[in-house]
Write a structure and sequence with these properties.
Two copies of one chain form a homodimer. Chain A has 414 residues and is an alpha+beta fold. The first copy, chain A, contains twelve helices and 16 strands.
Chain lengths: 414, 414
């Protein structure tokens, strides 16, 4: 009997061809959800699905599913689903999301070309609006699919350009008839570039993703008193800039230091007013991004920040208000799937490690309705959401080989 | 024999009248050096000097001197000089500088109205471009007068509007004939609002100024690496924002804490790039304003900052460059003059303290060529360079009474 074999050439060619859609002369491409360029990407994907003679379904939120039928129809035996997304941020790389969708097609192609009908159906999915650039929230298509957001709310989402998501779906011809969630897979697998520097830094080929870390986003607004930097004694100052700096330093030096391999904290945005060399800042606006794969530790970090804010506000005589911008609990992935991925990487002679995903992915939504796992390949310098996003072709192929092998094992394990 | 007595009404009326020149409907006034509105202020001042029948001299940098002749001509017995400036920042209060110049006129008026010819000449001076808004450096007129900057360099200064200072002096009619520094006083006295909150906070009426603190201004530019806040482990970060926060916190928590009543440190300006919630800052640009009345401690603060910069750059893997923007050594004032001011305040029943000046003043330049001291009156909430700058009329009068009495003592002490 034939064995499904990966066709590396077609996979790489499709990644490049999809990357050309919405491309700018400077090297990046922009296919923001439900725009004309993203429609062109969808049309190309659907055409490739047709070439594989897949049963194509589009659901009411625009998620695209290409079904390779199995010996038993998917309505009778829960299928295996792989997927990701093909929408992009502005001026993006060619790999984020697209790699996972096209690798899923490459797995289906391997079965088609080997003439093998799998025991269960194999589905490749492309979820709508993973990036959340135009419509909030991000990971919307998979969230709706998994029942975490009702369809009407999603369709009524108003974009940054004032458009209604449902209208744009109709306009581009991807308001499908299938009910979101209609096909519940037995397992969901997502292959993705790491979008972080860990695998490259450790010279490893495969990341076995243990889950997606929890996220806590806050905006802090600190109100002090503007005064002359030369004439105001320290004891009479209410320095919003100092309070902001003390908070940012505390997060790294105390909160992160307590769990340096688990807790992340970033103050990426900080603005002082009036922002003059010789004027004590009247106001400071800052963001705090904290992440942890462990919910207990994330809550501990939030509590320590809150306590420090209260202490510094009291000590410096400033007012500090905080606004929660986002909060997601950590999502652990399926242990058995992680074991299979890890064993497969070892069998293929690929160096690997277990690791948490720092970024959000459709997989974390699909984990609500099916055993789920992810496979990572290295990202050069951890760069993503940028035209300089890069993974070597050999590494892309290695990831797809792991995916193909894991799929084979899952289908065989009946 | 008559005694010189202060005429409070005329002093306050002149402060208000000068404050009306260049005034906006919203309450502030703008008389930036050598503009039409500042020329109008100069013309008004000169007219008031004429009313007192002063001998008016203008030097080549535009400093204005009103000489009340003494028994002995100033060419033979070094005169007593008082002064300050009448140029303003944009949207300023009515007191900064103007109070000192008009109080000097009030002292001269007291002698005129009492019919008393002082033993030595009494001079009221208004120095050009103290604020340095349009032309750099600030305190320019007094700096040139004291020999700290050559006349040609000052005349060739190019303004923020592209104008040449010397041309503007000619245009407004204040390019005088006297050589700067031609009249060397025996002592220089400057009465000024505190521009800080100390006297008000301690409920005191008079500040006996011990000197002007030293100033060290630096701009720091920190270059790290932009990376995803969720996918980049702390050990692989080069976070310019964290380095900036650590420096700002260090300055307060370590450098200032070592000498809390002497060293000041302010990070008033801080900007992150790209300044996004989920992106580790690639670059941080910040300013450091450090001040100390003691040169040794100021150098110690600079050294500790430099050492910390080197340590954090090494630890965080970022590059930090520093640029010196300004550096002035502390200027101590004359001990005998301080003693006289302090004794006078006590005799007049005014509460008082010795204190350092946090801001720069013409007095610090004049201290190069004559024994110099300053008298402070309270500034409400420490506000200056702002239409809300305020000192109660009674406090303004108290300061002028001290000045008048000190002048009397100095002239009697022959």
């Amino acid at each position: 009997m034939n064995t499904p074999r990966l066709d590396p050439h077609t996979l790489l060619a499709q990644i490049r061809a999809l990357g050309d859609i919405g491309a700018a002369a400077e090297g990046g491409r922009t296919r923001i959800a439900l725009t004309d360029s993203e429609k062109a990407g969808r049309d190309r994907l659907v055409a490739w699905m047709r070439e594989l003679d897949l049963d194509i379904r589009v659901d009411a939120i625009g998620n695209i599913f290409g079904i390779l039928p199995g010996e038993t129809p998917w309505q009778e035996a829960a299928p295996l689903m792989m997927g990701s997304h093909i929408d992009t941020v502005g001026n993006a790389g060619a790999l984020d999301g697209c790699y996972g969708v096209l690798a899923a097609l490459a797995v289906q192609r391997a079965y088609r070309e080997a003439g093998i009908v799998p025991r269960r159906a194999i589905i490749a999915a492309a979820f709508t609006n993973e990036e959340g650039v135009r419509y909030q929230p991000d990971m919307m298509g998979s969230l709706v699919y998994a029942g975490g957001l009702d369809l009407d709310s999603a369709l009524n989402a108003v974009g940054t350009d004032g458009s209604r998501l449902g209208d744009e779906l109709v306009r581009i011809g991807y308001a499908g008839e299938m009910a979101p969630g209609a096909i519940v897979p037995r397992e969901y697998l997502e292959l993705h570039i790491e979008q972080g520097p860990v695998l490259e830094a450790e010279n490893l080929q495969i990341g076995v993703v243990t889950g997606v870390q929890g996220i806590s986003w806050q905006r802090l607004s600190i109100r002090g008193t503007a005064n002359h930097a030369g004439t105001t004694p320290t004891r009479l100052r209410h320095d919003a800039g100092y309070a902001a700096a003390a908070i940012a330093a505390f997060l790294r030096d105390e909160v992160v230091a307590a769990h340096p391999d688990s807790t992340l904290a970033t103050v990426g945005s900080l603005e002082l007013h009036p922002n003059l060399i010789n004027v004590i800042a009247r106001q400071a606006d800052m963001t705090v991004d904290m992440r942890d794969p462990d919910e207990g530790r994330l809550q501990e970090a939030e509590q320590r920040l809150q306590d420090f804010i209260a202490a510094i506000a009291e000590r410096e005589g400033v007012e500090i208000s905080s606004e929660r911008l986002a909060r997601f609990e950590p999502v652990p992935f399926d242990d058995a799937l992680q074991d299979t991925i890890e064993a497969t990487a070892a069998e293929l002679g690929l160096s690997h490690r277990r690791m948490v995903s720092g970024a959000g992915h459709d997989a974390q939504m699909m984990a609500r309705i099916a055993p789920t796992a992810m496979i990572f390949v290295p990202s050069h310098k951890g760069i993503s959401h940028n035209p300089r996003e890069h993974t070597d072709d050999a590494q892309l192929i290695q990831g797809a080989e792991v995916l193909l092998t894991v799929v084979g094992k899952r289908l065989a394990a009946e």
